[in-house]
Design a protein that fits this description.
The complex is a heterodimer of chains A (about 375) and B (about 110). Chain A has eleven helices and 14 strands. By secondary structure, chain A is α+β, with helices and mostly antiparallel strands. In chain A, strands 5, 6, 7, 8, 11 and 12 form a six-stranded mixed β-sheet that branches. Chain A is elongated, with a radius of gyration of 32 Å. With about 110 residues, chain B is an alpha/beta fold. In chain B, the strands form two sheets. Chain B has a five-stranded mixed β-sheet. A two-stranded parallel ribbon of chain B has the order 3-5. In chain B, strand 6, helix 3 and strand 7 form a beta-alpha-beta unit. In chain B, helix 1 packs parallel to helix 2. Classes of the chains: A alpha+beta (about 375), B alpha/beta (about 110). The interface between A and B is medium-sized, with 19 and 15 residues.
């Protein structure tokens, strides 16, 4: 766009020689009507047009969602420093001062066309990646249960820090009175951690179907996991807490490999279950140690990943074990649905506007 | 970011040039760095934790990776000058059974006086 015919003719001949198709306009009005017909790859805009100020046209281009991505190079008189700056800060990618050399015009135009093309392909790549990750997140979400198994009262919070996470859990019924629960946390929390979490889930399903549910043994389950997820194979490890709840006999069998200590509420008092702990899964240190924890009706067990106690606020403080324990105590008289909602609002209000750094998963079971 | 020096008798010492967090991002650099040093021929490797500000699970994976390299030759990984939080983390993960965690200086660890 330039009102000076000689400039338009000159630009057209320079650009046509380099195989560019050029559409010219002498004023703002005709420019916008040809923009409505066909979108160019790049716009050369004179700042002084008869019916418009070039800067107004630039502003109008940048306001339009459709025209905004088109790179604009402004043409100015060499003395006009101020409007060059204004143009650049208003979204122009570059300027060409009149009088210009043909080589300079070609170099600037071709550079910006190339740059624009790269940005566009980068945007497409990022969009594709993003939609893949969203799809992966859906797959991961489909693996965790939708509702409590019949006969056991469980509530959970499952919040990946990004679209996919490194936490996974499951709860299922083994037989009339026994339930199996596990909660695992992969090292890291990106796509690789999410893929490992899916493998772990799959492995556990296979383990379960390979044996009779009545024969399900926690100790051999943990040893089998450790044998199969070798650190060198994935360069990742995970922590897991798994439990068998026996409602008839009134006890939980618990095996903890590297996970933070579960919390147990017994008749109003809340304590951490330290018990026998084992190392991480994947570095071949698991002996399959299991502790037996008795419970009474109405007692509660909270399993959680370290992401919960490591929720960090803007001051850099962590949510911590004490807050978690106090919250369990103060919620002990409410039903477990409300207790779980209290927990979520407690850490969320603690976190404030700070970013979530790790995945958060918590499972609250009432006997 | 990481420094490696050989003390007497094939004892390797790893330290950080300046205070840093060992997280997912640094641990991939760490792997590349690890390939450039010869940990296998060290009779013992001492990691000086003075400048480790924080360590996440991917950082722990980097430590395990060093440990696996050294342990394959039957040698020890000794960690000194760790902050209380990191020691607590290693204890929770039961990694203090895998690595040797000591409260002493690098010089003492080299002389095996602790």
């Amino acid at each position: 766009m330039d009102d000076d015919l000689s400039v338009r003719v000159l630009l057209k001949s320079i650009l046509s020689r380099d195989n560019h198709d050029v559409v010219e306009s002498a004023d703002g009005r005709s420019a916008f009507s040809s923009l409505a017909v066909q979108k160019p790859d790049i716009i050369l805009l004179d700042l002084m047009l008869p019916d418009y100020n070039g800067l107004d046209i630039l502003a109008q281009l940048k306001e339009s969602e459709e025209l905004e991505p088109i790179p604009v190079i402004v043409l100015t008189g060499s003395a006009d420093r101020e409007s060059k700056l204004t143009a650049l800060s208003s979204g122009a990618v570059d300027f060409i001062s009149k009088p210009f050399l043909p080589e300079e015009v070609l170099l600037r135009v071709n550079t910006h066309l190339k740059l624009h093309d790269l940005i566009r392909s980068l945007r497409v790549a990022v969009d594709n990646l993003e939609s893949d990750v969203i799809a992966a997140g859906k797959i991961q979400n489909a693996l965790v249960p939708k509702s409590s198994p019949q006969g056991l009262s469980v509530e959970w919070i499952y919040e990946p820090s990004y679209r996919v996470g490194g936490d996974i859990f499951d709860v299922f019924r083994l037989d009339e009175n026994r339930y199996f629960v596990y909660l695992a946390d992969m090292s890291g929390h990106g796509v690789n951690a999410a893929m490992l979490s899916v493998m772990v889930h799959r492995f556990i399903e296979d383990f379960r179907t390979s044996i009779d549910d009545g024969e399900f043994d926690l100790s051999s389950f943990m040893k089998e996991l450790d044998r199969n997820f070798i650190f060198e194979r994935f360069n990742l490890f995970f922590t897991i807490v798994s439990a068998i709840v026996d409602l008839k006999e009134g006890f939980v069998l618990l095996s903890n490999a590297g996970h933070p200590a579960p919390l147990m509420k017994r008749e109003g008092s809340v304590e951490f279950l330290e018990g026998k702990r084992e190392a991480l899964v994947g570095i071949n240190m698991i002996h399959g140690d299991v502790s037996k924890i008795p419970f009474r009706n109405g007692d509660r067990l909270l399993l959680y990943t370290d992401g919960l106690i490591e929720v960090t606020n803007e001051k850099g403080e962590m949510y911590g074990e004490e807050r978690l324990k106090n919250l369990m105590e103060s919620s002990s008289d409410t039903d477990i649905r409300s207790a779980s909602l209290n927990l979520r609002s407690s850490y969320e209000s603690f976190k404030g506007s700070a970013l979530a750094e790790d995945d958060i998963t918590a499972l609250l079971i009432e006997f | 970011m990481f420094e490696f020096r050989l003390a007497k008798d094939e004892i390797g010492v790893i330290s950080l040039e300046k205070r840093a967090r060992i997280t997912g991002e640094t641990s991939s650099n760490f792997r590349k760095w690890q390939d450039t040093v010869d940990l296998k021929s060290c009779s013992r490797v001492i990691l000086d934790g003075t400048n480790i500000e924080f360590i996440d699970s991917m950082g722990i994976a980097a430590l395990i990776s060093i440990y696996k390299t050294i342990a394959a030759e039957g040698n020890d990984l000794v960690l000194v000058n760790l902050s209380e939080e990191i020691k607590k983390l290693l204890n929770t993960l039961r990694l203090d059974r895998l690595f040797i965690v000591k409260d002493c200086s690098v010089a003492e660890a080299i002389k095996d006086l602790c």
